[in-house]
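Hi R.,

Here's the chain you asked about this morning:
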Amino acid sequence: MSKIKLKKGDTVKVISGESRGQQGKIVTIDPKKMRAIVEGVNMISKSEKPNAKNTNGGIVKKEGSIHISNLMFVEGGKTVRLGRKLNEKTQKIERISSKTKEAVK
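And the predicted structure, written out as tokens:
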């Protein structure tokens, strides 16, 4: 299993699937299943029973998960591949942009 280079809060673009072309921020990541939930992307309809939060119940729209391989990091409005590199000064691994060869936040 490869290391997940995307993190919570990253802006990503969907490159494959029904939601192709849509952008959003990552809300959660499930590293075991290699899936992420992206804000406003891959909306699914789910029926819910009435409960304390939603007294009426009914059909609720919410984000579904997307496989990590179908997401691409967005930097400066363009999609970019990410790599990992050891920083010599801090001795920590940083995420590196493939186009600019600079560290990503």
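The two ends are 24 Å apart (CA to CA).

Let me know if you need anything else.
M.
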